[in-house]
Amino acid sequence: MGNQSAKNNNPALFATAESLSEFRLSASEAMPDARTACHAADAWARVTGRRSVFVSVGLDETLDALPALATPFGDEIELTMVCVLGNDRAMQDVHESGRHLARGVYRMPPAAGRKRSEAEKRKKQLREFLDRDSRGVQLVLVPWSLSNSEIKALIESVVHAAASFDPATASVAKDFVAMDFAAFNINPLIRSRRPLIVPGRRFLIENDPGTLAEFAHEFGAAVLLPTVAAGAPPDRIDAWREGWARQNGEQVPLLSGGSVVWNYALLRSDCILTVDARLTEGEMFGLHDFPFVRAKAVHSLPPELLHETDGARNARSRILAANSARVLRRRARWRAKIDRKSKKLRSLIATAAARSEGKQAPFDPAWISHAIFAASPEHTVFAAEGNGAGMWMWSYNHLRPALYPDRMATIGLMLPWVMGAARGAPERPIWCFAGDGSLGYQPDLFRELPERAPNAVVFVFNNRAWSSIRLEQTFLFRGRYPGTALPSRDFAKLARRHGCEGVRVESEADFRAALRRANEPRDVPLVIDIPTPQDSLPFAGLSFALAELDYLLRPMVAPFIASVVRAAAVGALPARIPRMLLRLVMP
Asked: For the segment 267-278, what is each residue's pLDDT rounded down to a tens digit?
């Protein structure tokens, strides 16, 4: 089932103003630069579930935009980048660089003649490529030796293909998961006592929640939404959340990634079934070979099961579950335990946020994050980069629509994402968690927000530091922080200079007033500058840090353990490390 808000087939074409005027392309969005256009196209595709198109003209624009492809490539976002290049050397250079950031690259041959049959042949080859590699990022290289009218026609054909893209019939990539589809066996799921099911983003877009709900209920499994799945189109997230509660009540827990309960479930599970999904290093603590996870098997449903009718899949699950009633009764206790821990975690979060001291600058990020989610409208779309502010968003975001870079992130994508999301979901408010470090890469884009995203609210976690880097320095370098301090900046004043509404809060009363203003009708975006302390650890940040530790320290586990024990014995172990690790086992 596709995203309901994307039923209109209006083409999503993003480019710079110069590129659009070059070929007189219509029904498009002119962005200030190529990288911003690429990020905006990425966000549009995320919030709609449809394929977007980005056009770069010339080698300079293309090289500027290529790094921005890392984020949609890592998250399997449907985006087609059309590069119009002037010579064979440029085509070859972009081909060599871009093939590592795309599922497929189509290099159009230069014009050997002006026959109409040749132009039609090129169009046919292009359409076959677009249909064949329908998932993830596509790269189309077009030579400038073609006439402007031919290039325009080719770009319009790409846009038409994107507009007619139907996620429900998109081909399933054979290498999307690590496991061999032919080796799939349902028996480990039947025999397991603590099974988990992890659905992917595309599964949420294509399927009704009732299908997986019945499957999970009959197999006694909890369902975990990984980061990229929680970034499915807002309409689908809302439908899943509402449909799940309506059909299951408290019977089957549905959890979002990044929480302590998520980590507890992974560590305690004895079978993990991924459904068109991958678990990232951060979501598995970096333990991708499961040395400390009890899971005996990790499987994925084969492609034919992903597109089975609801009745066929439900019948299959009923037959299998009927043969394992005794095991299912055991799993009921496991499922109830996960549900209780999930409720307890949310209660602890609310209590900790309510008791946070010092409700004046600098503010406790836990209290701020909880208050933001509590005050947000139900249909709000949240967004964040993969930084410290983004980790706070994930620590408190339970099953809310959110844009977040799951596997690879390009710094400075926040405001372009806000602009692309606002175009893709104009009826929804866009609230984003931004760090002062990442905003330093894009302050000039504040002037674009009043026209492109008037309903946006930007919460700036201004702690005068690179928080995500300091997190690693805390774990790996005993609290030594070279090169991560930043000067104090007033982003509210900067926003006002660019035509936005800016507020800098210094007290709880200021913050409450700013939240009320965020919910009021406005003609311009609102930027709320919030001073926060430099060293604080979000729940989601703990998973990130453990993943880094695992990657760095796995070759020297024994010396590391010995070092920790020795440091603890002589009183040289920083107190912050045991406290951080204790949060892992809460509640």
From this structure: 778 888 877 776
